[in-house]
Amino acid sequence: MAAIEISRLSKTFRGGTRALDGVSLSVGDGEMVALIGASGSGKSTLIRHIAGLLPADRDGTGCRVEVLGRCVQHDGRIAHNVVQTRADVGVIFQQFNLVPRLSVLMNVLAGLLGRVPRWRGSLCYFLREEKLLAMQALDRVGIAKTARQRAATLSGGQQQRAAIARTLVQGAKVILADEPIASLDPASAKRVMETLSEINRTDGITVLVSLHQVEYARRYCPRTIAMRDGRIVFDGPSHELTLAFLRDIYGEASEELVLPDASDGEILPPEPKRLAYA
Amino acid sequence: MVDTTAKGLRELDVAVPQPELTQRIYGWVIWGSLAVLLAWSFFPAEMDRLPELWTGAGNMAVLLSDFSEPSFRYWRDYLDLILETVQMAVWGSVIAVVLSVPFGLLSSANITPAWIRFPVRRLMDAFRAINDLVFALIFVAAVGLGPLAGVMALAVHTIGTLAKLFSEAVEAIDPRPVEGIRATGASHIQEIVFGVIPQVLPLWISYSLYRFEANVRSATVLGFVGAGGIGIALFDTMRSFNFAAASAILLMIIVIVSLLDILSQLLRKAVIDGEEVERLVAFLGFLLAVFVAAELLLARVIDIDPLLRAL
């Protein structure tokens, strides 16, 4: 069974921008797939469609999004039981989307909302073992000490790891990560990517992660899907994404995807540069 | 290379750009409208009689001298009524805050569909448009003379203002945390509890405290129409030209309103910024002592009449 199955997905925004143009793809169970492309190529839009946060065009082509064999949306209509499906899909956002004034622990516990009885979730009442589960998740991403702090007081990297802990507590079988490292410094970016990759390997959770820079895709994801102008222009092993190939697909825009001093031999993400006076 | 020293700058050939004609016309229209508005209201508002404040200075002096010797002869009655005023404001505000949460959420564009939002908003407009003194008149007819009518009047009018302020706060939230909560499979109510309320809570508390202050002030006049509180005493003394007593009442009102203003300021700081919590606790202790002392005086457990007579 495929973890994610999309057929003929199109999205036109108000104002006529065609963000997705007949996208079809399939991601197998337990895969870790990178989604790359320049800004405005449709990566985020695609992820929001898979999570059922945006409905596609009702253009009569019978477009369909399925996650874990359950329908998320069909022909531009979000499925009625999408709330149940969402509980199995963890979404990680570029801006972390934590609730800044709630404690880190409470933010992580929010991952349980789709599973605990509704009245209990609505009253913010969680059992001891549920809190323990949240603490274990925080420990696993390495920020257990921050549990009682407000989420707003965390650094960007810590916030993103708290968001990952939320998906762990959620028991997500699929994690959709929308540019999770785009607003992080290189060291934090590396830790977040390593955490995602570790979760994928040990728990067998399917990960679809959109990235801005090809280096990270080549290092952490065996398979890469490349997008341009709302279409899939490449889908295959990440090591085939050579600089020359990228220039072929993206032309001038390829500069945006590759760090200026990168070469084909160098697949490591850049180490944080030490400042001379530090 | 451009020479940017003062002398070098002077040689550069630039002119100050004129503001665009349309912008100048807009400016004239706006200031012109204000001038027209002021002129139009000048005579109807009797602004031509303003100099009488000076020519009638003698009358003013007599009035002020009457007010300058407050008479606390019936202080026990006034104290009783002032406490009642505060108690009315407390319950009126609490009822309003509790009911403003659902009404505020129901009139927020990012939460509620238009067909619910629109009628709720119009209802809130009506609550807000009608002054609490008018509501007091209505409730006096409905539930009879006394503080209950005042409490209901304060509550209804305050719901109108608070629900609007609450919904404006909700409409200004950051949608991203809400989306984060939605993505975990939360229900609609849970999205609001986890994603919306934590974001707006500081503003809601702040608005509620402002309304409480305003309600204490409003409650002091509700007695004019028989809806409880110190207003009845104020009304009677003024109507009988007993300005010495009225002055005493006004002084007591100023003291109690200032005390509660300070309280709400300290509460705001402590609850929202987590600052000066010690000062809040100290002030709460002081206020508690004041109110306990007042009740003991009223119950004649403590008797200061001999002391006052001696003075």
What does this protein structure show overall?
The complex is a heterodimer of chains A (278) and B (311). Chain A has 278 residues and is α/β, with parallel strands linked by helices. Chain A has a domain at 1-85 and 174-181 and 207-212 and 222-257: 3-Layer(aba) Sandwich (Rossmann fold). Chain A has ten helices and eleven strands. Chain A has a six-stranded mixed sheet, with helices on both faces. In chain A, a hairpin with a 2-residue loop joins strand 10 (223-228) and strand 11. Chain A is globular, with a radius of gyration of 19 Å. The termini of chain A are far apart. Mean pLDDT of chain A is 85; it is low at 265-278. Chain B has a domain at 79-249: MetI-like fold, CATH 1.10.3720.10. By secondary structure, chain B is mainly α. The mean pLDDT of chain B is 89. Chain B contains 14 helices and no strands. In chain B, helix 5 (75-106) packs across helix 13. The longest helix of chain B has 35 residues, at 188-222.
Helices and strands in order:
The complex is a heterodimer of chains A (278) and B (311).
Chain A: E1 2-12, E2 18-28, E3 32-36, H1 43-50, E4 64-67, E5 70-74, E6 77-78, H2 82-87, E7 89-92, H3 104-109, H4 118-122, H5 128-140, H6 156-170, E8 174-178, H7 186-203, E9 206-211, H8 214-220, E10 223-228, E11 231-237, H9 243-250, H10 254-257
Parallel strand pairs in A: 3-9, 3-10, 7-8, 8-9
Antiparallel strand pairs in A: 1-2, 1-4, 4-5, 5-6, 10-11
Chain B: H1 6-11, H2 21-42, H3 52-55, H4 57-67, H5 75-106, H6 114-129, H7 132-143, H8 147-171, H9 175-182, H10 188-222, H11 231-239, H12 243-273, H13 277-298, H14 305-310
